[in-house]
């Protein structure tokens, strides 16, 4: 199988989900860094018309939208499978993936981790405490619901890792780097244990912000 190329920004949790999936598949891939200030200019705007990351290139086929990329990878590199065959387990996976995109990222991570991690680290910004405080009710609701859905399972669709776990783990690992994680996780011990299991996987260890930064420097 020919090599995959991932266009992204070190530290992006969506990009990390793609890289971690490639690691789970033991696929050959390259990382092509995109400077944050160039997302809406050429050549990247031709890869992604909305100026975001990641983008996957494979045999001349360009694909954007993280969920689409993950599902494509699971189809073209089917071993090990990361989508359950059983319909209800597959539905649990799909639901968790949509919670990630619509509720965990939108209004939670794109506020809290931006002000706590991304803004200070990449732009030298001071966190907006008011914006963070305003995002916390939704953050509690999302983390509580993820904890409820996980229940006593090891992973979000059951006892095996799926695309949902690989999409959620980078987002929650990002959130865990903030002081807000302590109150969010206080009553959700199963979520903490799940994140520890995910971070122990070689795919997550190979795709930390530091490791992807090293990939970018070597590109």
Structure description:
With 219 residues, the chain is an alpha+beta fold. It has two domains: 4-81 and 204-218, 3-Layer(aba) Sandwich (Glutaredoxin); 87-201, Glutathione S-transferase Yfyf (Class Pi), Chain A, domain 2 (Up-down Bundle), CATH 1.20.1050.10. It has ten helices and four strands; from the N terminus they run E-H-E-H-E-E-H-H-H-H-H-H-H-H. It has helices at residues 13-25, 44-47, 66-76, 87-123, 129-150, 163-175, 181-185, 189-199, 202-205, 209-218, and strands at 4-8, 29-33, 55-58, 61-64. Strands 2-1-3-4 form a four-stranded mixed β-sheet. The longest helix has 37 residues, at 87-123. The chain is globular and about 45 Å long. 38% of the residues are buried. The model has no long low-confidence stretch (mean pLDDT 97).
Please tag this protein with its features.
alpha+beta; Glutaredoxin; single chain; Glutathione S-transferase Yfyf (Class Pi), Chain A, domain 2; 219 residues; 59% helix; globular
| Poorly predicted runs of 5 or more residues | none
Indicate the CATH class of the largest domain: Mainly Alpha
Beta percentage is 5-15%
Number of helices: 10
First-last Cα distance: 21 Å
Q: What structural category do the secondary elements indicate?
A: alpha+beta
Strand order of the largest sheet: 2-1-3-4
State the CATH architecture of the largest domain.
Up-down Bundle
> In the residues, how many domains can be counted?
2
Helix share bin: 55-70%
